Amino acid sequence: MATLWTRGIQVCRSFSRLCTTPTVQRGTAVRLMSTENDNLQVDVDSKTGVATMKMCRPPVNSLNLEYLTSISIALEKLENEKCRGLILTSGVPKIFCAGLDILEMYQPDVERLQVFWRSLQDVWLRLYGSKMATIAAINGHSPAGGCLLALCCDYRIMAPNYTIGLNETQLGIVAPFWFKDTICGVVGEREAEHALTLGIMYSTEEALDIKAIDKVVPQEEVYTAAQEKMKQYLKIPEVARQLSKDMMRRENVEKLRLRREDDVANFKNFAVRDSVQKSLGMYLEMLKKKSQQKK
Predict the structure, then answer these.
(1) Of the residues 8, 140, 145, 165, which is catalytic?
(2) Residue 254 is a catalytic residue
(3) Rounded to whole angstroms, how far apart are CA atoms 202 and 135?
(4) Is there a catalytic annotation at residue 100?
(5) Annotated catalytic residue, options 39, 61, 139, 167
(6) What is the mean pLDDT of the chain?
(7) Which of 100, 120, 171, 196 is the catalytic position?
(8) Is the pLDDT of residue 14 over 60?
(9) d(CA 75, CA 30)
(10) How far apart are CA 96 and CA 93, in angstroms?
(11) Annotated catalytic, 168?
């Protein structure tokens, strides 16, 4: 019988087979790839070389193993296609991305848990270390792993009346060092410590004040504002832009590359603690009650 590690590899391969590259016609935006459930829509404008990645996994774009694998493969394919820019956004109303799927961590199969964490590492390495200019068009709430995706991007534009933050401590979870490195690079050491320790969820306006996001525009203008900002990035000579970004981020990228397996082991050992499992169970029960109240 195949182990879950083997099945994790098979998942990667199955998604890889689903990702196909059509003939691209100049001046048109085309779908570059899709998944079986169409939960991740990726379109590339062949005239500008800019891709749009739209997360469409209802109800909240939660990141499970399969979805992370799909995102990782999509990012790799865009790099291989020499795309110049990427706009990351959501097709789910009022949600950018709710972060990691709690069910991957609650009463987990340990082998799958480790594959899951490696898949998250892969997404971070590809997005944070991408040669593409990357802009997060944040058109909904963005807690935890959703916030991480946004922080990985070069620039963040957000609609008002939403929240964003690395709120892991509220669930009894400790953000790993590479989450910390990511937010430190955006808001600075002191504000990052405050944010991570208290698990703060910032309003759009508060996020702008601490520079966690760069711009606030009305909901209906988030994507067009991202397109306009992308033009500014693409005016910069590509090699100079890429090398400057690499200079700023290389140390953090290499730190994770060197410590990947230790990080996986640390996460596994922490996630299976009784206290952590209890916290996750209580959180899931709270979500269940909220869902029942809405019915």
Answers:
(1) 145
(2) no
(3) 19
(4) yes
(5) 167
(6) 89
(7) 100
(8) no
(9) 16
(10) 8
(11) yes
